[in-house]
Amino acid sequence: MNISIKPIEKFTVEVDGVAIGEFEKVSSWEGFIKLQNPKGYIIAADNSTPFTEIMGGIFGDIFGSRTETFQVLKASENLIPS
Questions:
Q1: Is residue 20 part of a domain?
Q2: Domain that holds residue 30
Q3: Do the beta carbons of residue 26 and residue 36 sit within 8 Å?
Q4: Is residue 34 included in any domain, yes or no?
Q5: Domain membership flag for residue 5
Q6: pLDDT tens for each residue of 23-68
């Protein structure tokens, strides 16, 4: 019997500077990411450039935090503040 072990990646999501909750990454593909928590889901496009990815990785590793910006394509209505 074989098993696959996948690390669980958790993210704190902010919309316009307001934290809306902690989400688990359930999938990602070609510049897109799907995050989910018990309240709903977010599908977003990665807005980063190769430069911002490199700099975010360097400074994120040094300071222990990494912030990435994504454009929301679709989300559960109850997650996005109006």
A1: yes
A2: 10-75
A3: yes
A4: yes
A5: no
A6: 998 888 888 889 999 999 999 887 665 555 555 555 555 555 556 7
